[in-house]
Design a protein that fits this description.
single chain; alpha/beta; 10 helices; Rossmann fold; globular
Amino acid sequence: MTHPLTHAPTPRRPRAQNALLSALLPALLPALLLAAALAPAPAAAAPTPKGAAPATKGAPPRDTLREETLEGGIHVHLKGKAGSTHIWTPPGYDYHTAGAVIYVHGYNSSADRAWREFQLPKQFSASRQNAMFIVPEAPKSKNDKVKWTALTDLRRHIIQHNVRVPGGHWVVVGHSGAYRTMTHWVDYSKVTEMILLDALYSGQEEFTQFVEHPKGKRLILISSDTSRASKRFIERFPYATLEPKMPDSYEGFSRRARRAKLLYIQSQFGHKAIVANRAVIPLLLRLTPLRLLP
């Protein structure tokens, strides 16, 4: 398995070298202390001009990073000024052929809460996709600002922590109020598919721009509370495909639904159950261009 983090090994001194240093240290210590006492004091740093921004270029990230094994894969949790970002790669993950799945939570939630409450690692594992799964922070209410207006900034944030982001297809999955974040990402070249989980409360023009992209972008809508808005939206597109309910298996999708550029599914599950019952996200991810793991 290709590990998502790249750690440089710490060099070790040979045992003979350690023994020699231990023998010489008592004799050298008085000379070292005398040299330190006679050394000139370091020059004071020049004051930062008033109004100037502090130099941060090249500074290491101040976020905390925690790594663990989870659901047989690797879980990395970044936490800092940008909030939480969860990153998970499944067992059998192959960086060279992998893509990325970004899950965006809705209102009254957070990256941490969605991660736990909806058991996202289990759902990602059940999808069997060769992908790096990323769960960043998003607005928790209508008054909250969008955290990541540019996917390039999120990608850079992850790379700064020595996490290798794969170069394959990117799929964005968002629930409820996630549409506010997703509308900022419709023009990102790497995103080839978006999945709105009862999330079409607004942003119809942006999602129209996405689905009509000349490079073959794909949009999937599954709706409960947003059924009326979703039905009005798909009336614009003669090629839209409708499914009367969410099937129980991948084989339950019609052949046309599997290939549809715009797929609308009328959900038999309620607004929260769409993400909570663990029956929707894994199956919808099977419709993506990501590679299937054994």
